[in-house]
Amino acid sequence: MLNALTVDLEDWYHICGTVDNDDHRKWTEYESRVTRNTEKVLSLLARYDTRATFFVLGYIAEKEPALIRTICKAGHEIAIHGYYHQRIFELSRAEFEEDAKRAKEAVEAAAGQKVEGYRAPEWSIRTSTLWALDVLAKLGIRYDSSMVPLTRMGERSFKPFPHTIKTAYGNIWEFPLTTFRVFRERAPFTGGLPMRIAPYWYILTKIKEINRVEKQPCLVYVHPWEFDALAPRIELPLSRRFMHYFNMASTAPKFEGLLRNLKFAPMREILGCL
C-alpha cells in the first residue's frame, strides 16, 4: 500500500508559542538554514526515487523562491503550512483567512502552480476552530491535514483515518496524523518527537500492520531542521525543549529506513486513490 510522505517546510526558529516566533520582525536577524537542510531531505528522496508533499510556509516561499522551484522540479507536491507558522486556535477567523490566503498566494507564485493542500502548524484544528475548514474550502483548498485524534493535542472524537468533511463551500478531504489505539486513547508515532522516541522496528511494523489490518494509508512527516544537528537553539521551557530537540540524530536514519522499506507518494495522489 502507498503511504503519504510529507515535509513541513520550516526553518529552525519557527517554533510556535515563543517570543521569537511571535515577533516576526526578528526573523530577518536569523541565519536561514532551510535550503541546506531541505537539500538533505531532497537527496534522500531522490536516492529512493520517492516523491512527497511539502507543506510550505508562505514566509519561506517569499524569501526562498528558488528552493520552492527546486522542490517542484524534482516532482514533489507543494502545499501550504500557513504564512507565519501560527496555530489556528490563536487566530480569529478573519486573521486565519488572511494568513492562509497570503500563504497560498506566496507559495503559488514561487511554485508557478496551484496548491490543493493545507496543514496547520502543530496540528492545531480543534472542534472550536472547525470553521477553518470552511475558510480553506472557500480559498480552493481540496484537502487538509491538521487534525489529530488525541485528547490534548487535538480532539479524541476526530476520526483516525482519511475521510471527507462537509463545509459551506463543498466537501474537503481530511488526512489526520496517523495514530494507533492505546486503551481508550491513541498515540502518534510517525513523525516529530514520537518518531524520534519510538524504535525504528516498531514504527515500520506498526505502519505495515495498519496497512494490512485497517487497510488504510499512514502519514509520515519530517521537518528539515530535524536533519541539522548544528542548528542554533532557542531557549525554551523544559517540556518544549524536550519536544523540539530530543534525539534529533535519529531522524535521518529512521527516515531513510522507511524510504527503503515502504512505498510512499504525495498526499494528493493518496487521496486520489481513495
Question: Can you walk me through this structure?
Answer:
This protein has 274 residues and is of the alpha/beta class. It has a single domain (2-272), classed as TIM Barrel (Alpha-Beta Barrel). Helix content is 39%, strand content 16%. It is built from eleven helices and eleven strands. The chain has helices at 19-22, 34-47, 58-63, 65-73, 93-111, 131-138, 192-197, 200-214, 238-245, 251-261, 267-272; strands spanning 2-9, 53-56, 77-80, 117-118, 143-144, 163-167, 170-174, 179-182, 185-188, 219-222, 263-265. Strands 1, 2, 3, 10 and 11 form a five-stranded parallel beta sheet that branches. β6 (163-167) and β7 form a beta hairpin. α4 packs across α5 (93-111) and α5 (93-111) runs parallel beside α6 (131-138). It is globular, with a radius of gyration of 17 Å. The chain starts with a strand and ends with a helix. The mean pLDDT is 94.
Summarize the structure in short.
The protein is of the alpha/beta class. It contains 11 helices and 11 strands.
Defining key terms:
four-stranded mixed beta sheet, five-stranded parallel beta sheet, single chain, alpha/beta, TIM Barrel, 11 helices, 274 residues
- The whole-angstrom Rg is 17 Å
The number of domains: 1
Whole-number mean pLDDT? 94
Determine the structural class based on helices, strands and strand pairing. Answer: alpha/beta
Q: How many strand units? A: 11
What is the helix fraction of residues, given as a range?
A: 25-40%
Specify the number of helices.
11
So, CATH architecture? Alpha-Beta Barrel
- What is the CATH homologous superfamily assignment? Glycoside hydrolase/deacetylase
Q: What is the straight-line distance between the termini?
A: 12 Å
